[in-house]
Amino acid sequence: MRSGPALLGALSALAVVGATTAFTLGTPTPAAAATACEVGYTVNDWGSGFTANLTLKNVGTAPLSGWQISYTYAGNQQLQQGWNATWAQTGKTVTVTPAGWNGTVAPNASVTAGANFGYSGTNTAPASISVNGAPCGGTPPPTTTTPPPTTTTTTPPAGGAPALHVAGNRLADSAGTPVTLRGVNRSGGEFACVQGNGIFDGPMDAASVAAIKSWHANVVRVPFNEDCWLGLPNVEPAYAGATYRAALKSYVDLLHRNGLIAILDLHWTQGAYTGNSSACADVNSTCQKPMTDAAHAVDLWTSVANTFKGDDATILDLFNEPYLDRAVSGSAAAWTCWRDGGSACTGIGYAVAGMQTLVNAVRATGATNVLMLGGLAYSNDLTQWLQYKPNDPAGNLVASWHSYNFNTCASASCWDSQLAPVAAAVPLVAGEIGENDCASGYVTGLMDWLDRHQASYLGWTWNTWNCSSGPALISAYDGTPTAFGAGIRQHFLAAG
Known about the structure:
The protein is α/β, with parallel strands linked by helices. The protein is built from ten helices and 24 strands.
């Protein structure tokens, strides 16, 4: 659990939890500076590098415009990449200036920026941090007895979707009762919008959700698109930005009202990659990329986390299927890239945001949602997931695994050697299971194995596609199963 920040007059408080250091610059006497502000500085450190997150809060009564944050390291910390602001380093001094869209901070509002650094030796926090050339100061607004505004959230009705957390190697509800996820993927939100064909593929209404429930599913995984969520200019405005976000939020709310847990899966992202196993040369989010991009993924997960903060019946799947091991040579190097991103990722061609950075982005919002992290080889390889598991102050990380009959790890002997140790340590969710032969023999044996190890699983996919072109669970949105889907449906019904 992350330590609560402490207000300082002269950086007198320093809290350390594991590899995380946190301190906040508070408001000294008014004579110290003219800027009424607070600066928070937190670090997630993995020994040879770290992510630094800065939060600037305006505690004054007037907007804070054209801000600049500066500080000096005592050691050899070297800037690698930053986001949500312009980061620069001269010698040991780091300066952070607005990205353009966040140049003005309204009263009582905050702006957050982060960066990755490398170092050797010790990683001592800066002794002081200045805003516009001086420590934070000024006089904040007087305290009143008026209660702060509250955020209104939709409370699921009786029998609604349970709020989840990690308890040992199981997911559990708020009462501590273990929860096993059995459900389906609902593909469409990742591709329709960027192809100009709408937001979803097929109906996303109450009748279609009722059909999913009729299979005794308790979870639906919803793939989505980075460009469409952020409203980037390559997407038609009718299917992007606020409209797209509202559509996804509305569907998640519908799932919850029907007692279904939601998993939001970042499926297609930006990044120009033309190397081994490239799915397309396009920089935009029009296909699967090897790993999340540093240019947009942090902004995206900050936005998603703020949207679903407080809704712990929604799980956040940080990236669908990493396959960076096709570009980065060597297992250790690939797993380091997976966790750390940045300079650890060679051969990809665009700046990568590692899993630690994405976890940090979500937690910086205050969101405590369970997070799913897929491994290498299109999430089929979890061999070093435990060794490279990112730090999470909320303790809510889940190993995400995908399994098809054509994958490398597609036998009970492989599951016993590679998956069983992971399932014994953390919750294991097979976010996608399927086979390309229009049958269900493979997934039936797999589901039996997952049941014995108290793991969760979701079939791909609740779409009326021809099963010869990929696994499809249904032939009609009323829930009529294909031959492949019939095996999964029968298993769900038997499980209760």
